[in-house]
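Q: Can someone sanity-check these two? First one:
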Amino acid sequence: MASIGTIIKEIIIPYRKGNIRLNPEFVVLDDAHIQGFLLGKYYQRIYGIDIYNSKNRNITIGTNKAKKFSLDIYQISSQDPLEELLNEFREGQFRTTLTSKQKLSLLKILRKNRPAFSIGEEPLGKIRGHDIELYLNLERPYPPILRRPPYPASLEIRKKIEKHINELLDIDVIRRIGHNEIVEITTPVLITWHDGKSRLCVDFRALNNYTKAHRYPIPRIPHALDKLAKEKYITKMDCMKGFHQNGVKPNSMK
């Protein structure tokens, strides 16, 4: 494992007679996964930590040898590699037909390519090297049809729209604009399904009439199936918010 840097992180050990605060330096390893760490003799010496091998096992810190902290003893046992990886990727779903060996092999690939996946509020990322550039066949000032105000929405709908906007801000898909930036007003539309879930869309029908189209051939389905004919494993991966993973060039963002 290669080191990708160091970080100093304060550790607070809670204790009923006063918390213990340490500031150890950690080395961050690439593709590493740990569930705990050991405080070595170097830091024990720096903070004056002495361990007494008495019946009750306790430690003292600094010069105050009268203030003793009790130690809890834990039995460290090795964890099954498959169970460890399943716990790490517990949000994933795997087919029940996979054997333990196949599942372990798949999980190792997922861990090796961990930066390719976004979980929770992590930045989404984007497709590299294929930023899209948009061309309009008109210039500012734009016609009124491209500067329409938002559609009327109920209080419940506005709350859902705001929630979607905050989610896009958290994963770095959109950004807040400054008060002096000239950005045309867009028209957000909330699409709601029968199960209560919703998706935030933008009505760009008017804008499409002024956008120069990109024309390219679409691959034929039989050709794609022929390429998969001799493959051993066929995997389908659903990109999280795949539409938003298409990068846009800076001059086309507005």
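And here is the second, same format, sequence then tokens:
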Amino acid sequence: MKLLFGWGGRVRLWPRFGPDQLPFLFDGGPGVIKIVSTDALEALIAKATRTPYAGARGRPEWLDYHRNELGNHYVVPMTRQAYNLCRCVVITELRDRPTGFYSLDLNQRDFAALPDISPTQLVDLAHRYLATAEHVPVDEHEWNHLPDQPHP
């Protein structure tokens, strides 16, 4: 099955990734993560809104609604687009809530100018995601099983 997308009368195939490939491959390969402030992100969203061929324009209303809960914003490149744009995933931390994510088209120079994530911030991000992993319930037969002897 071919997945199609397009704008302005042009149709393209969505890129396909094999089971051993990461979709986030752009200038440096996997592992490129940038961090951005809320003010800088809003400026990038405003620029994407003014850019004629930018289809992914962030979530300005969502950001405004959650303004008091916003934490860090991480930008991960997904694919190169036409017109010197790259499609990125923006991961926004919300204080005391799960993280939200959405897409944003950025000029490749704007993306390159963003600061890289620091090792400490990367560890914080990893722990935040690890903490949101879904709990696997105990098997039913184990749930009703009582040990014959108490633990020492």
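A (reply): Looked at the second one. The chain is about 30% helix and 25% strand. Residues 1-7, 22-28 have pLDDT under 50 and may be disordered.
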